[in-house]
Write a structure and sequence with these properties.
mainly alpha; three-stranded mixed beta sheet; 9 helices; 3 strands
Length: 240
């Protein structure tokens, strides 16, 4: 992402009621967002933090992407989702050409307590793409739908029942590896943030403001304690 593009994005942060760049719904597991806090940062401070973090983390993420060679397109586009009323959130998706999009809502940028939190979230979302989580999730969903449909047919189900079984199978298939994907993105994202000069252990304090999903059946996110532990282990392995 060019420096001019970063500042263009920051312009949107200061003009929330201006031009809105609508983003597609995330197609991969997303970083769960914290509840809005009353002590959000002033716009100017939040903007400076975001510019600094993008400038340091994005080049590192791109190098990791190119080195690992799991995906073809490593040209990250980092955007601000400034649609009114959006909660603190960040997500990774792909545009129609396959270019990776890393989107941050204005609320998340202002809710981040420090640059370390922004760096960790950015690294985490970039890691989803670098690890190829979207195609892996899609393949898992397709396999679940096919298997469920076959089982329904063998059981003598009608067309509507087969369709419902396929939908359920796709949901179960998509979520089968979602917790694994989140932990993988936490680890790789922590490494990216660390190499970029930030302490992801401080950034992982982000999880302290998230509702803890615990170990929900078919849940999409691991327990917060597990995620913080993965971050700490990653930093320790890097000599931090």
């Amino acid at each position: 992402m060019t420096r001019s593009a970063v500042f263009a994005a920051i312009a949107a942060l200061g003009m929330i009621q201006g031009c809105v760049q609508t983003q597609p719904s995330p197609a991969a597991p997303v970083m769960m967002a914290p509840a809005a806090q009353p002590d959000i940062l002033p716009v100017e401070m939040a903007a400076r933090n975001f510019v600094a973090v993008v400038g340091q983390v994005e080049p590192v993420a791109e190098r990791y992407c190119q080195t690992m060679r799991r995906v073809a397109n490593c040209d990250f586009q980092i955007v601000i989702d400034d649609r009114p009323g959006q909660p603190p959130n960040a997500f990774q998706t792909l545009d129609q050409s396959g270019r990776p999009i890393l989107a941050f809502t204005v609320a998340l940028i202002r809710d981040a307590r420090n640059r370390e939190e922004l760096a960790f979230v950015l690294g985490h979302e970039a890691a989803h793409h670098i690890a190829g989580h979207i195609p892996r999730q899609q393949n898992s969903a397709m396999a679940g739908a096919v298997l469920a449909g076959i089982l329904a047919q063998v059981g003598g189900a009608g067309e509507e029942a087969i369709a419902r079984a396929q939908d359920l199978g796709a949901t179960v298939g998509a979520r089968h590896y979602s917790k694994e994907f989140e932990l993988e993105a936490d680890s790789l994202g922590a490494e990216i943030a660390f190499v970029a000069g930030y302490d992801p252990r401080i950034g992982a304090a982000f999880f302290d403001r998230l509702p803890d999903p615990g170990d929900q059946f078919l849940g999409s996110h691991p327990a917060n304690a597990d995620r913080k532990r993965v971050v700490a282990q990653t930093v320790a392995a890097l000599g931090g």
